[in-house]
Amino acid sequence: MTFKLVNIWNPKGGQGKSMIAINLAAAAVQMGLKPLVICQDPQGTSSMIYEGGRLPFEVIANIPKNKPDANLVLIDHQASDWQLPQGRLLLMPVKPARTQYKTYVDARKIAEKAGKQIITVVTDAQHHRTEERETAKRLVEKGALEIPSSGVFSRADAQLLTIFDEEMNKAYKIKDRRNDFLKILGAVLADALEQEGEKKNAA
Ligand SMILES: Nc1ncnc2c1ncn2[C@@H]1O[C@H](COP(=O)(O)OP(=O)(O)O)[C@@H](O)[C@H]1O
Ligand SMILES: [Mg+2]
What we know:
Blueprint: E1 4-8, H1 17-30, E2 35-39, H2 45-51, E3 58-60, E4 72-76, E5 89-94, H3 98-113, E6 117-123, H4 130-141, E7 145-147, H5 152-158, H6 174-202
Parallel strand pairs: 1-4, 1-5, 2-3, 2-4, 5-6, 6-7
């Protein structure tokens, strides 16, 4: 793979942008890629976890002037950022609770109008709540991926780690949660391959 840029975007805070940025980067390291996370908020979660000093990839605060030494760049957008990101591929996390969901719907409309490719990731759905369960189900039926609600994320956060760190090997259902990220990475890479194919056809 030559180079892939993914914007992790949802103007609503607390949807899982930073959580996905660092864990997806960690999944990429597992697969032999060289990821870079750009955290647009210097006080942001992914920067803070990076400060812990144990991540196997870099988190920087600004978009570098020169092309970075990485083949997967993940931009962790900050909350309230309604400006549609420039890249073609958007990864949009969303928690399906009613109060959170509307922002995603509004932002997705803007993205669709602009012709973006969108990977939706349902995070932290509380399946015992009918409404959240139904919303999550509807999104998954339309092609969204899901990261079920799990304690491994707060546990990893507390130790300034990703769920791929070996310290997390014995956490409950850790393999399933790691697989969720490998699947998301698969979707990102499939899009990258498709685009490379299109470029070749155009040449
Ligand atoms: N699937 C999940 N299960 C449990 N907690 C989750 C899940 N997804 C996200 N979270 C938690 O939700 C909180 C907000 O996530 P965060 O990535 O900081 O959101 P954002 O960057 O969009 O503001 C974090 O504490 C994170 O660990
Ligand atoms: Mg964040």
